[in-house]
């Protein structure tokens, strides 16, 4: 293979932060010249790696707006010497939950807690130090999760060094605004300027298109990937571009999330905006709530939101987030971009800490419809799951399948039917050193637990042979997809594959046909069904441990999804009505 020297910057100046956001830096280490100056990074060498990784941390990709609640802006600074050897502050985070859940969420997703600032629109680049191929390396751009309420690109488990060192790809991670700072629901704002966090994401992708060649990457080989709200953001990007648009990525990976099929209605947060204004006593000094909240201290806003448990979600603006995203896909209105998506076997356990019964949750999602509640409860009998014999285990499995697994299946099937190359996976592995409480495997393959394996950032202490090998397998699959999205990650695409008779006993069914949490199947031991092998299982299948990929028929885990179909249909209709109301009011 022919290799080239690092490309010299020919890009035009890109939107960047104000000069105060960057210190003048003339130290050693790797450098890259971009449109606004010279970036000075640092290097790292991973075990058994053949070359070092260049890390450029805290590069400005846009400026936080002059006025709070505005779109990301360019700044006029140029010719900078940018110190990119340490992460910049996270955007303002909100953990607006009841106290126990808030503390638990912080333990998993915000430990250690970073510095926070409204000046936060920075990104990080992890690149192999060796010369890149003449056509540039593949690029993976990460969008973090956090319910669109919290998150930051500087978390240690988002470090892209392992990808760069072992898979010869470039990784970019970036901050974007969340909660009220990123999704302000003020009726005084134009509807197309309320999803500021989504606009930040687009600004970061624009930066990658303009500048990644200066780090050895190709702007034509970009794959976006994200987890949870990051995956929802990925799907929002997939479905908000039109078919004829030039899209800033050619592949997409969705981990434990998507936005086309919702398990909860996307409601307006006008009421929360008014509550925040009232708590800030806006009416006493201002005629405009927007002006008042813009003037308020950020720490004060954060405190009020967390004390009153106010949640600010995206607006269905039909620009960055469509109410009819699934229909746009079905009608062929979006770009045909290869996708890969999947979920974890025990997503729901982290969301239902201290809950002992599914009753309240089922009442909420069914509208107190007793027939549906009874039907769903009967399909998830207490004691039938490997995870445990309690109401918490029952609720967690219902939540896992209703919120994540079944919606992901709908998304994958719809994508394949629309002619989009689609691959699906299922993560089912648990390791004590990646549990929230080290040494305890109480949460199993919980929501987000695959991230350290994908990034290769699991703790080195108490690492098992299976964990190390499984991480390599997953990282290789993600990288293979990024290098050739149309070719896939290495197993059959959805809608293709070998069709064969699958015996119930071979599908992970327990004794006497009991439901096994690792497969979710309802088949008895001697029953068979026609299956198509096109879902990759990473980790355990039934009672068999694996450090590689086992390809199964997706019906092994999706057999109960039909129970939720009427609920999803009702939510889709509600979303359409909400979007129509919001857009009419904005006119």
From TrEMBL:
Keywords: Disulfide bond, Hydrolase. Its EC number is 3.1.1.-. GO terms for molecular function: cholinesterase activity. SUPFAM superfamilies: alpha/beta-Hydrolases (SSF53474). Pfam families: COesterase (PF00135). The keyword Membrane does not apply. This is Carboxylic ester hydrolase. Signal peptide: none annotated. The active site is at residues 228, 347, 447. Residues 31-503 form the Carboxylesterase type B domain.
């Amino acid at each position: 293979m022919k290799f080239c020297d690092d490309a010299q910057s020919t890009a035009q100046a890109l939107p960047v932060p104000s000069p105060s956001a960057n210190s003048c830096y003339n130290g050693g280490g790797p450098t890259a010249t971009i449109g606004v100056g010279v970036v000075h990074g640092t290097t790292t060498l991973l075990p058994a790696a053949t070359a070092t990784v260049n890390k450029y941390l805290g590069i400005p990709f846009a400026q936080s707006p002059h006025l709070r609640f505005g779109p990301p802006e360019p700044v006029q600074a140029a010719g900078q010497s940018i110190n990119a050897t340490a992460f910049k502050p996270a955007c303002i985070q909100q953990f607006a939950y009841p106290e126990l859940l808030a503390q638990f969420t912080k333990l998993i997703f915000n430990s250690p807690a970073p510095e926070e600032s409204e000046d936060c629109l920075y990104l990080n680049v992890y690149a192999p130090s060796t010369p890149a191929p003449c056509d540039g390396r593949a690029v993976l751009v990460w969008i973090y999760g956090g319910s669109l309420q919290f998150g930051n690109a500087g978390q240690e488990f988002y470090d892209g060094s392992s990808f760069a060192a072992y898979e010869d790809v470039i990784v970019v991670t970036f901050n974007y605004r969340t909660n009220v700072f990123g999704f302000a629901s003020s009726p005084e704002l134009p509807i197309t300027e309320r999803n500021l966090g989504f606009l930040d994401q687009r600004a970061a992708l624009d930066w990658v298109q303009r500048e990644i060649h200066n780090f050895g990457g190709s702007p034509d080989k970009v794959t976006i990937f994200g987890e949870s709200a990051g995956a929802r953001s990925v799907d929002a990007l997939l479905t908000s571009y039109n078919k004829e648009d030039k899209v800033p990525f050619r592949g997409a990976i969705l981990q434990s999330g998507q936005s086309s099929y919702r398990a909860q209605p996307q409601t307006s947060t006008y009421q929360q905006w008014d509550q925040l204004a009232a708590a800030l006593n806006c009416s006493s000094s201002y005629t405009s709530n927007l002006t008042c909240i813009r003037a308020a201290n950020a720490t004060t806003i954060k405190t009020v939101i967390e004390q009153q448990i106010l949640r600010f979600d995206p607006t269905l603006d039909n620009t960055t987030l469509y109410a009819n995203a699934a229909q746009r896909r079905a009608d062929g209105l979006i770009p045909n971009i290869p996708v890969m998506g999947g979920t974890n076997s025990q997503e729901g356990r982290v969301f239902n800490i201290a809950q002992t019964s599914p009753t309240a949750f089922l009442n909420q999602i069914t509208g107190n419809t007793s027939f549906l509640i009874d039907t769903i409860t009967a399909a998830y009998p207490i004691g039938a799951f490997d995870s445990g014999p309690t109401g918490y285990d029952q609720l967690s499995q219902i939540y896992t399948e209703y919120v994540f697994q079944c919606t992901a299946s709908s998304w994958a099937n719809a994508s394949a039917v629309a002619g989009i190359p689609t691959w699906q996976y299922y993560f089912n592995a648990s390791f004590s050193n990646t549990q929230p409480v080290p040494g305890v495997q109480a949460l199993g393959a919980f929501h987000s637990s695959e991230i350290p394996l994908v990034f290769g950032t699991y703790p080195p202490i108490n690492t098992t042979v299976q964990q190390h090998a499984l991480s390599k397998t997953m990282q290789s699959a993600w990288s293979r997809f990024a290098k050739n999205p149309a070719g896939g990650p290495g197993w059959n695409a959805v809608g293709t594959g070998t069709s064969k008779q699958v015996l119930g006993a071979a599908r992970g069914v327990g004794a006497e046909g009991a439901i096994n949490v690792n497969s979710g199947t309802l088949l008895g031991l001697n029953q068979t069904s026609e299956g198509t092998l096109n879902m990759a299982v990473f980790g355990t299948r039934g009672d068999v441990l694996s450090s590689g990929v086992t390809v199964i028929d997706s019906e092994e885990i999706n057999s109960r999804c039909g129970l939720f179909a009427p609920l999803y249909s009702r939510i889709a209709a509600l979303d359409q009505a909400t979007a129509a109301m919001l857009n009419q009011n904005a006119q």
